[in-house]
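Sequence only, no structure available. Ideas?
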Amino acid sequence: MNGLPRICVSKGVQPGPLELQGSQARHLAGARRLRDGDAFLVFAGDGLEYPARVENVSHDRVIATVYDSVRQEPPPTPEVEVWCANVRVKRMEWAIEKCVEAGGNVFRPINTENSA
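Reply:
I predicted one. Tokens follow.
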């Protein structure tokens, strides 16, 4: 079910009818352009996703049918490897810091023609 729009609801989700109003409905109807019969996913932060199908859509209200829950799998962590030309110590510390902040797993300093 990858690629389906996802919507977070504050209350618990149960299989059966679901009515969304306000900003959530406007997002699905306007930004995501869902129409009758389109599928989307509902979650409430409990580790479960619920497939749902739009039954009726208007500008500020979406009525959908929610089906049985599916365990939500965390996305795989990508392997990020950064190669950086050797630079002055302060700049290298900065480069390593930014690599870690961006989620880099491996940092490889390399010698290049213009390395410091």
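The two ends are 50 Å apart (CA to CA).
Hope that gets you unstuck.
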